Prior knowledge:
The structure holds two protein chains of two kinds.
Chain A: H1 2-9, H2 13-32, H3 36-58, H4 65-96
Helix pairs in contact in A: 2-3, 3-4
Chain B: H1 2-10, H2 12-31, H3 35-55, H4 59-84, H5 101-121, H6 135-143, H7 147-168
Amino acid sequence: xxxxxxxxxxxxxxxxxxxxxxxxxxxxxxxxxxxxxxxxxxxxxxxxxxxxxxxxxxxxxxxxxxxxxxxxxxxxxxxxxxxxxxxxxxxxxxxxxxxxxxxxxxxxx
Amino acid sequence: xxxxxxxxxxxxxxxxxxxxxxxxxxxxxxxxxxxxxxxxxxxxxxxxxxxxxxxxxxxxxxxxxxxxxxxxxxxxxxxxxxxxxxxxxxxxxxxxxxxxxxxxxxxxxxxxxxxxxxxxxxxxxxxxxxxxxxxxxxxxxxxxxxxxxxxxxxxxxxxxxxxxxxxxxxxx
Lengths: 109, 172
């Protein structure tokens, strides 16, 4: 506990802590849930954790804007990924009648 | 007690509250048995991340987080949940099943501990802290150095949205 408090004075440590825990939770959601939409949510949480790290490290960069711009581009790519992913999920729902990834086991309709 | 007061004066307590909100929302998504409630937990987690961005000096990124993630992605996710929930299957059509919950919980804790250990072990060079960042500089950089990437991402977003509409349309 004293080490943790001492590290808190170091400024970048809490951001990395939150980012790491958020990444672990997102990966666990991605592995645990048997629902395609919940898996997309886990991917979003992991992308958020990466964004926290980008913005936190950009504070100490020589050019502080670049990390934030990278985070913005990550957000836009995440938006397009969710749009395409949800369209595919709706098609899967129409074809298989459910969105459990365990049941998606045939290539030919 | 003295440490608590000093942290409160530094504004650190508010930062830790945002951290707790973020982790709590994500944990609610992990433990929830209902897809719709899980998306509300995701909303709380995104709001906490936006607060953390403000503390890290990214005000514009924080505003973009609220607009893109909560205004765009989360609404799209809730839309997808409502379209894909199977009402004819019974009353618990929003219910989700968790497989191997203790195993995956142990996995989450283990991965978190490994990441935290690596963070604590690593020495980060945080000496050259720039005093202040302006959103103006971000806008100049976005329009000069990164303008090609901006255009490419714009075209990607357009292609993705048109493609999503094309995939989701009715065939008959």
